[in-house]
Amino acid sequence: MRQKFVDYYSILSISSRASIKTIQRHFENTIKDCYIESNVSIEREEEFIEIFTAYQILTDAEKRNIYDIIRNHILFNDKEYSEEMFNMYNKKYLHWQNNAKYKSIKYIDLDYDEFARDILGHKITINQIFVTNNTVNVYRDLSVSAISLLGIIGIIAIGGIIVPIIFFAVSVFWPLTILIGIISLIAFIVNNFKAILTGLRQL
Q1: How would you classify the pairing of strands 135-139 and 128-132?
Q2: 3-class DSSP assignment, residue 117
Q3: How many domains does the chain have?
Q4: Which residues constitute the domain of residue 169?
Q5: Where do the H-state alpha helices sit in the chain?
Q6: For 22-69, how does the pLDDT look when each residue is reduced to its tens digit (9 = 90+)?
Q7: What span, in angstroms and rounded, lies between the C-alpha atoms of 17 and 19?
Q8: Segment 138-162 mean pLDDT
Q9: Residues 118 and 152 occupy one common structural domain
Q10: Sorting pLDDT into bands at 50, 70 and 90, what band is 140?
Q11: What is the CA 2 to chain-centroid distance, rounded?
Q12: Tell me, what DSSP letter sits at residue 38?
């Protein structure tokens, strides 16, 4: 007897052609609704399991391919594969589904930040959850602050290198600068000697 089929694309509100990035984005937005403060709501544990199971199946290329075959067979009566082949695929899929659900259950007790770091890969960005009127708001200001801080450090580092070079150049080469100025003045006098002499005679 077959288990009740679950449309994971519908659970994540995505198209069956959705990219991995789209799946990840919708999963993150959907899973947040299961949290109150920083923990999974008791009333939404089953929903959390279904959403996380959907994510695990659809982000694995092999599992998603098998799942699509089963989905097309059940929902759209696709007869591309024989009943025997379908049953083989279905058996493999049900094994993956059970493993995914088991893994989902283990993650229920994690708070959102731990879950996000482990599953979503948030390292610089830390999700801080605040509850106002039972609405979960997620802020990610840390990533922006980190980038700004790195920019400031970079500017200071560059300034620390360039400024000493300028002072060194001025302190070492100032005699050469004066010499070039004197030579330029002499060249000007030589080139305009007649005009200068004529001007002095008229005084």
Answers
A1: antiparallel
A2: helix
A3: 2
A4: 145-201
A5: 8-11, 20-32, 45-58, 61-76, 83-107, 112-115, 141-191, 193-201
A6: 999 999 999 999 998 789 988 899 999 999 999 999 999 999 999 999
A7: 6
A8: 59
A9: no
A10: very low
A11: 40
A12: T
